[in-house]
Amino acid sequence: MPKPLRHEDSPPRPIHDRAIQDLSFIRATMERASSFTAVPGWGGVAMGLTACAACVFAARQASPAEWLAVWLAEAIVALGVGGWALVRKAAATNTPLLSRAGRLFAGSFAPAVVAGAILTPLLYRLGLSGYLPGMWLVLYGAAVTSGGAFSVRIVPITGVAFMSVGITALVLGPQWKDLMMGFGFGLIHVVSGFVIARRYGG
Fold first, then answer.
1. For residue 74, what pLDDT band results from cuts at 50, 70 and 90?
2. What is the pTM for the complete model shown?
3. What is the CB neighbour count within 10 angstroms for residue 100?
4. Is residue 77 included in any domain, yes or no?
């Protein structure tokens, strides 16, 4: 019987190397399974662009009520754009929205957003509408950071960026409110959305 050829320069791999590689593969698979990867990239870019347009339009309003109306309308538009993009990406990537990771993402994201919705009319009635942008940015950033714990790494980093801009807006005061809104909800959404789209798909 002919003996199999053996390459002297290719010794068999140690079993512990193969075990480490297998464990790394299993861990990576589990991380993907526990992460909500349907966060939309191009949808985030679109949300940022609508926020930039709203920033310009809001700055021209003569009263706090009109200014607030512009941003509430923008919130509805952004919610629609983001929701549509989320559902579209989930379908394209076969990511169930009601998976464990999806439920954890939504459950962590929602409380801070609800808090913002409750505090908005209160601050407006107290005549503190100029501080709404800082509050919105901080709470939205907290929501994104919390939800991002169950998503890809760029998401919680984006949340921290929102919170940083929100704190800056509170420190600078109402005179910078439109610039901070454009920088936060506009520029940060555009940049993070572009990164997500390029690295993790649209």
1. very high
2. 0.78
3. 12
4. yes
> Directed axis angle between helix 132-148 and helix 154-172, to 10°?
160
pLDDT of 18 above 70: no
Kindly tell me if the per-residue pLDDT of 82 is higher than 70: yes
Q: How many domains does the chain have?
A: 1
User: 155, 144 in Cβ contact below 8 A?
Assistant: yes
Domain membership flag for residue 23: no
Contacts with 95 (C-beta within 8 Å, 6 or more apart), sequence order: 36, 37, 38, 89, 102
Note the pLDDT tens digit of each residue in 153-186. Answer: 888 999 999 999 999 999 999 999 999 999 999 9
> pLDDT tens digits for 124-164?
999 999 999 999 999 999 999 998 887 788 889 999 999 99
Domain that holds residue 94: 39-200
Q: Is residue 87 part of a domain?
A: yes
Residue with structure tokens 């929100």?
166
Residue 21 falls inside a structural domain? no
If you ran DSSP here, which 8-state letter would residue 14 be given?
Answer: P
Tell me how many degrees the CA angle 120-108-155 measures, rounded to the nearest 5.
95
